Amino acid sequence: MELIHHETQDGLLCAQHCLNSLLQGDYYSAIDLANLAQDLDRLEQGYMTEKSTPESSNYDDTGFFSIQVIQKALEAWNLELIPLRSSNQLACLARQHPTELKAYICNYKQHWYTIRKLGKYWFNLNSMFKRPELISDTYLTVLLKQLEHEGYSIFVVNGELPNSQADLVLNETDLNTKEILRKQNLDKQDLKKAGELIDCSGFDNDELEKAIKMSLEETNFDPNEKLYPSLANEEDSELKRAIELSLEANSNQTTVNEPMSSSSNQAEEIRKKRMEFLNKQ
Fold first, then answer.
1. What is the pLDDT of residue 275?
2. d(Cα 281, Cα 279) in Å, to the nearest integer?
């Protein structure tokens, strides 16, 4: 797990974190992405007949970067993003068999993050998490459906991802998935008690139960029993844990739309540094 490149949230630079997590390396900085955004702005302004506005549609001083910037960054690696709900053949495959692909990029408002396969295992590399989160094949299917219900735009990553040490090692290593999933569950419970677990509101309880009903039909899961009597089958256990956490999140709504005060100072510092750099151009 230590070999996985995982960036935790720095200001509002989630697009940078998303790209580097996908590529598994410290490949892009905020300045790199700002330069790409400026190139796109100049290109777009060249097609405009009227006097252009100095305001960029591809980035701003909070650290936000548009989908066009992310796509431009991935072109250097011969990678492209395909909307999951498009008619593209690869998108159709992803909707039917999501584990057949290698990576997804998820976006909601100004937040971007990567879900990708490393070796034999899937990981949620959300920069809001302190560490990579192992997810099973079963839970990947449920998670993508849940994110769509919550309003996320999901993109399939098409192309050959660069080799990474984590990918090579995890392809040859058998992880103790039962213990990892158990530890992740305990960590989430601790965060929830501390009021630090990010709420995933917007996914209705009834809709959640419908989305996972078919996945549970082949199990002996009794909703009146504890969700985790054993971890003999880690996929079923993780799926049940996903149900519990989602239901708890909806029944104990917490405020998540308020800006994070801990990030405001970082964002302001980043904004100043970026503006200083751009003024030199």
1. 52
2. 5
